[in-house]
Amino acid sequence: MSGEAELVESARAGSVAAFTRLVDRYSEGLLRFLATRTPTFADAEDALQDTFINAYRYLDSYDPRWRFSTWLYRIAINNAKRNASPVMDEIGDLPADADGPLAECIAAQTRENIWVAARRLLSDEVVTALWLRYVEDMSVNDIATVLERSVAWTKVNLHRGRRALEPEIGHLQDNERTEAYG
Amino acid sequence: MDKFAERLRDDAARIDVTVAPELEARIRASLEATERAAGAPERERKASLPRWWATTLTGAALAAAVIVALNLRPGSTVEPAIESGVPDLAAVDLPRVPLRVEPAVLTSPLEEEYAHLKSDLEKAEKAVREQLDSVF
Q: Which residues have a Cβ under 8 Å from the Cβ of B136 and sit 6 or more positions away?
């Protein structure tokens, strides 16, 4: 990404302004990602703040061989885990009353969001792998790095996740057609 | 882009989040107040495996050199009890064996994959242990 390496270098040299530009670049995508992983929207916001603070504090440990986003998402996942409630850890699902940030953000929409189905059917790690692959366009190697998993595990679980969700997409499309035509 | 990828991307974009100006201000203020941690522990950790190999091989080479030097010392040879046709080692001009040490440096992707495979194993063990705890 053009300019990103320079911004990271400036931030490493102590420029808060350069790091703030990186914050502007990544905050919305990261917040959307964190909203799928935390119990409330406020938790997602706290996790976002912690992510940027930790990234800035430990910027000297960032290895430029990695993409900056890969490193940032890894920190974000650790912060999301810290903010996860015990209920989500055990069940790996949205609460029954659906007051999680994901449900809040899509409540006004008519058709079910596939990410709600993903949270219902798949583990946190597989949802994250799918998100990083299809939304953030990360390579399998980068995803494995973020999740601290092997490339083999990542490939297998991306495939499993896809196979689990494909019928849901078909099912959701059927529902939409039924609603449209009565 | 196939339909599956398109649907996942579209639905992610439909998750309506806005970074509130208050949150932005909070993050900026926190960054101003944050002190940077010194050093690069991660890079040091990554470099430790090749360094371990290098020191091990250097140590082994040094030990081999000492053994060879001791064996080649004129006074250290044991006199044969019976005179044989074997020539005296000290008298023979042995060719010097060059001890070339090349550190075996594992490439970084392999190191990472090895660490990730270990992480897979640890996570699988943890999951099995948790399942056993919940069953029994």
A: none
Establish if B26 touches chain A: CB-CB under 8 angstroms.
Answer: yes
A131 vs B contacts (CB less than 8 Å): 8, 12
**Can you spell out the DSSP letters for A91-130?**
H-S--TT--SHHHHHHTT-SSPPHHHHHHHHS-HHHHHHH
- What is the per-residue pLDDT across A74-128, written as a single tens digit (0 to 9) for each? 999 998 887 665 444 433 444 444 456 666 665 555 567 899 889 889 999 999 9
Side chain identity at residue B71, one-letter code: N
Q: Is residue A34 within 8 Å of A48, Cβ to Cβ?
A: yes
Q: Quick check: B15 contacting A, CB < 8 Å?
A: yes
What is the distance between the alpha carbons of residues A8 and A6, in angstroms, rounded to a whole number?
5
Whether B27 sits inside 8 A of A148 (CB atoms) is no
